[in-house]
Each structure stands twice: as structure tokens, then as C-alpha cells.
Write a structure and sequence with these properties.
It comes from Rattus norvegicus. The protein is α/β, with parallel strands linked by helices. 31% of the residues lie in helices and 11% in strands. A hairpin with a 2-residue loop joins strand 6 (127-129) and strand 7. The longest helix has 20 residues, at 43-62.
Length: 378
């Protein structure tokens, strides 16, 4: 049975953390500066991933952990190139049979980021704004990984015995689908994972700015790629535009048929596969501390699709019960696909703008739309 540290010990631990906060933040800054992007298949970025994994492995070794950087070979890309897969780190601290064993999972890769995406600061430069730290990976997931490492280092610095045996499994391909992770987990089932009592994942968000959130479970994702093809080569729009059934028009119509502007999924039969929400789940949602007004303000949106806490929580991706389809893994702040129309010199574009805005109003969506254009007169 896990026994919490004595209150006096906890006070010393917290004091040490407060005194060394600048040091911890500096390490996070160094980690955020590494462009460990696993999504874009570029040799330079793979080198950054290997550098990131090596830094983490060294950090754990310096704490006295037994560290194994498992070689995963290479990854064959769709374009034919082969890229090395960054290793998965397996680390262990303590093997006392009288203590429970806690395994922490984390990842050190990130999604692509550019300032042009809407960042107020350079995404790979950790920046403090109004008491908050901004940087790619600061939350997802380099910060939480470092928090666990810093917790262990605090116990070590104060010469306090860890109350549990700790294991780390850290990967560098989570954002790209956790390449090779499942195979490794199965292979290590009776070795590294033997004796593990708890697995902890710190890769989620807080619903409130005041209270931490405990994640009670996870769900799966199924990624679809839709391709609409007309022929093997592209057409010249100035020659063939307007006389062909263009693939983009079909794709837009197809994606637009999946869900309406209220968030209701239009795929026949999909709700029949969804298990009903139990009374226990309803009670759990009712007891979750969530201020809708505060959450809406922090999200910087005018309103959500749902007006009650229970409805929002059952649809929120991080706590969702029903399926929640999205064209991208993360909803965009805005979308702005370009299209064009060929025209004669006297053409008036105002009716087209009026038509687009009228159609958008019919959607009764909670978003805002605008239409801009520029012309190249003949």
C-alpha cells in the first residue's frame, strides 16, 4: 500500500521546488528549443528528435536510473524515403518489492509549429506572458515529462527515499501515430512492464484554471484519408476549369455531408453504435467542477454548441462519450481556402460576396465569416 510522505517531508519538497523553479524553467526552455517535430518527414527534424531523446536519456541516467534506449530501426515513408525512427526510452528507478511500481508514459515529439500559424511568439522559444509559459511542447508533452523528472530529482536532492518504484517509457513518435510503440509494449509485457501496478499519462488538459484534472480513461482514434481523383496529372485551370467535374468540388460536398453546423453527425447508423450514457456517468459529469462562463472566456469563443455543463462534457474531445469527428486532429482557429472565378472586365463581384454570406447565415453557425477578393484585370 502506498504511504504518502510525512507532512514535514512534503513541506521540504515543495520548498525545494519553489527555490529551484528558475532552474526547472530553464531546462524546459532548452527542451522547447529543440524542434522535435515527428510529423514532417525531414532528415533534419529526425536529427532533432534523436537529440531530444538523448537529452532525456542523459537526464534520467544522471538521476541514477537504469536506462535502455531501444533502437526501432527505420520508417519507410510513402514517398519512398527511409528515415530513422527515434528510440523509445525505458528507464527504471528502484525495485523494492515492498513498494508499488508506477510507470509514467510521456512523449517528447511535437506537432509542426510556425509563428505564421498564429503564435504570438516564436513557438520554439519558451516565452513568459502574463505569468504563463508559451512554447511548442511546453504542455504537450515536454513540460509534464520534465515535471516527473523534476519530482524525482527533488527527492534525490533532499536524500529522501522515493515512496514508489518509478519506471519511465518515453517515445518520440506520438504525434505521428506512435510508430513501433505497440509492438514494443507487447514485447516488454513480461519484462519491463512486469510488476507495474499503475500507469500514469500526463498528456491531457485541465478543464479549470484552478483545479487539476484526473484522466479516468482514454479513447481510440480512427484516421481516414479521402482522395477524389479525376486523372493522373493536374489540369491547367485556365484551359479546363469549368468544363470538368473537379475533384475539389466533390471532396467539399463529401466532407460537408458528414456533420451539420450544430455538430450533429449525419452518417447513418453511427449513433446506433454508441453505448448509452449510464446514470453513474451522468452523476460524474454533474460533479465535475467546470465554470462554463470561465471556460468559454478562456477559449476566446462567443459560445459553444451546448449550453449545459453535462452536454459540453459529454462532447468535449478530452472527455467525450459520443463520437466527435474532425477534419483535422485539432480544430483550426480559422479556415480560408482560396478559390477563384474567371471574369470579364465589367464583372461585379458584389453579388457573389452577398451569396456567400447569405449561405453562411443559413448554416446558423456560431462562427463569423468574411469574404475578400482581389482581381487581375485583363
Amino acid at each position: 500500500m502506498l504511504s504518502p510522505p510525512h507532512s514535514g517531508t512534503l513541506e521540504k519538497l515543495f520548498q525545494y521546488i519553489d527555490l529551484h523553479q528558475d532552474e526547472f524553467v530553464q531546462t524546459l526552455k532548452e527542451w522547447v528549443a529543440i524542434e522535435s517535430d515527428s510529423v514532417q518527414p525531414m532528415p533534419r527534424l529526425r536529427q532533432e528528435l534523436f537529440r531530444m531523446m538523448a537529452l532525456a536519456a542523459d537526464k534520467l541516467r544522471n538521476l541514477g536510473a537504469r536506462v535502455d534506449s531501444v533502437d526501432l530501426g527505420s520508417q519507410q515513408m510513402p514517398d519512398g524515403q527511409s528515415l530513422p525512427t527515434p528510440p523509445i526510452i525505458l528507464a527504471e528507478l528502484g525495485n523494492d518489492p515492498k513498494k508499488p511500481s508506477v510507470c509514467f508514459y510521456g512523449h517528447l515529439d511535437v506537432q509542426p509549429a510556425q509563428k505564421e500559424d498564429g503564435w504570438l511568439t516564436d513557438p520554439y522559444t519558451l516565452t513568459e506572458v502574463d505569468g504563463k509559459l508559451y512554447g511548442r511542447g511546453a504542455t504537450d508533452n515536454k513540460g509534464p515529462v520534465l515535471a516527473w523528472i523534476n519530482a524525482v530529482s527533488t527527492f534525490r536532492a533532499l536524500q529522501q527515499d522515493l515512496p514508489v518504484n518509478v519506471k519511465f517509457i518515453l517515445e518520440g513518435m506520438e504525434e505521428a501515430g506512435s510508430v513501433a510503440l505497440e509492438e514494443l509494449v507487447k514485447r516488454e509485457k513480461d519484462n519491463f512492464f512486469s510488476g507495474v501496478d499503475y500507469i500514469v499519462i500526463s498528456d491531457n488538459l485541465w478543464l479549470s484554471q484552478k483545479k487539476p484534472a484526473l484522466t479516468c480513461g482514454t479513447r481510440g482514434n480512427c484516421y481516414f484519408t479521402v482522395e477524389v481523383k479525376c486523372r493522373d496529372q493536374d489540369f491547367h485551370s485556365g484551359t479546363f476549369g469549368g468544363i470538368l467535374n473537379e475533384p475539389m468540388a466533390d471532396l467539399v460536398a463529401l466532407l460537408g455531408s458528414l456533420v451539420d453546423s450544430s455538430g450533429h453527425i449525419l452518417v447513418p447508423g453511427i449513433y446506433d453504435q454508441m453505448a448509452p450514457i449510464t446514470e453513474e456517468e451522468k452523476t460524474m459529469y454533474e460533479n465535475i467542477d467546470l465554470d462554463l462562463e470561465e471556460y468559454q472566456k478562456s477559449s476566446r469563443v462567443e459560445r459553444f454548441l451546448f449550453d449545459t455543463k453535462e452536454e459540453l462534457l459529454t462532447h468535449l474531445p478530452s472527455a467525450a462519450h459520443p463520437p466527435t469527428p474532425s477534419v483535422k486532429p485539432l480544430p483550426c482557429k480559422h479556415v480560408h481556402p482560396p478559390f477563384y472565378q474567371q471574369h470579364s472586365p465589367q464583372w461585379n463581384f458584389t453579388p457573389l460576396k452577398f451569396c456567400l454570406m447569405s449561405l453562411f447565415e443559413l448554416l446558423k453557425a456560431f462562427n463569423n465569416a468574411s469574404v475578400r477578393w482581389r482581381t487581375n484585370q485583363p
